[in-house]
UniProtKB/TrEMBL annotation:
Pfam family, one: DsbC_N
Gene3D superfamilies: Disulphide bond isomerase, DsbC/G, N-terminal, Glutaredoxin
InterPro entries: DiS-bond_isomerase_DsbC/G_N (IPR018950), DiS-bond_isomerase_DsbC/G_N_sf (IPR009094), Thiol:disulfide_interchange (IPR051470), Thioredoxin-like_sf (IPR036249)
Recorded GO CC terms: periplasmic space
Domain of life: Bacteria
Residue ranges constituting the Disulphide bond isomerase DsbC/G N-terminal domain according to the UniProt record: 2-64
Protein name per its UniProtKB record: Thiol:disulfide interchange protein DsbC
Length: 215
C-alpha cells in the first residue's frame, strides 16, 4: 500500500482532502484522516467505511476517537507558521483556540483569554477564514489591527498563515467556531466561559472516557 497513491485515489473519488493514512488493527484496513473526519479504506481505495471502530479486547476502547486525538496532536505539531501564544505564568493546561472574525469582534473573547491566562491556561491562537480570498481582508481589518485584537493576527506572513489555517482546521475536524483543542487532542466546540472550559480541561484525562462536552 502506497499512502500517497491512496490519498490521491480517495481525494479523486470523494472530493475530500486526505491528510493522514494509518494502519488499523484490522489487516488491510486503513484509517484516513480527511477534511470530513475519519474514514476507513482498503489499500486500493475501492471500499470506504464511515463509522466508529471499537476495540472489544480493551474495554470497547473507541479507536476512532483515539485516532482523531492523535491526528489533532500531529496537526498542531506540524504547523508551518507558529501561532501567537498567550502564555500563562503557572501553566496547568494549553489549548489551541480556532476562532472566526465575528468571535473576535464580539469583544467577549479578550476578557475570556485574560481570565484563562490568570487561571493557568495558555492559549494558542488560530484565526480561521472560510476561503483564501478573505485573507487580505482579515490582514487589513482596522478592528483586528487595534488593541486588543491586533495580537490575534500573525505579525508576519499574515495571508499565508490564514490560508494554512483553513487546511489545519479541516484536518482537526473543526466545523464550528470558536473551537478549542486541548494538548491531548480533545475537541471542545463552541464558546465556553473560562469556568466551563477549565472544568472540561480538568476532566479530560482519560482517553477511553472522553468528556461529554468533547469529542
Amino acid at each position: 500500500m502506497d499512502p500517497k497513491v491512496l490519498k490521491q485515489t480517495i481525494t479523486a473519488r470523494l472530493g475530500v482532502s486526505v491528510y493522514l493514512v494509518e494502519q488499523t488493527p484490522i489487516p488491510g484496513l486503513y484509517m484516513l484522516g480527511t477534511s470530513q473526519g475519519v474514514l476507513y479504506s482498503d489499500a486500493k481505495g475501492n471500499y470506504v467505511v464511515q463509522g466508529v471502530m471499537l476495540d472489544m479486547t480493551h474495554n470497547m476502547k473507541n479507536l476512532t476517537v483515539s485516532g482523531m486525538r492523535e491526528q489533532r496532536r500531529l496537526g498542531l505539531s506540524q504547523v508551518t507558521h507558529p501561532p501567537v501564544v498567550l502564555k500563562a505564568r503557572n501553566e496547568r493546561h494549553r489549548v489551541a483556540l480556532f476562532f472566526g472574525e465575528q468571535d473576535a469582534a464580539r469583544r467577549q473573547l479578550s476578557g475570556t483569554l485574560q481570565h484563562l491566562q490568570t487561571s493557568g491556561v495558555s492559549v494558542e491562537l488560530y484565526p480561521v477564514i472560510e476561503h483564501a480570498g478573505q485573507a487580505s481582508h482579515w490582514c487589513k481589518d482596522p478592528l483586528l489591527q487595534n488593541d486588543p485584537f491586533k495580537a490575534y493576527l500573525p505579525q508576519k506572513e499574515c495571508s499565508e498563515t490564514l490560508i494554512e489555517n483553513i487546511g489545519l482546521s479541516q484536518w482537526l475536524g473543526v466545523k464550528v467556531l470558536p473551537a478549542w483543542v486541548s494538548s491531548d487532542g480533545d475537541l471542545v466546540r463552541g464558546y465556553q466561559s473560562p469556568e466551563q472550559l477549565l472544568k472540561i480541561l480538568d476532566h479530560i484525562n482519560a482517553p477511553a472516557n472522553p468528556s461529554s462536552s468533547a469529542s
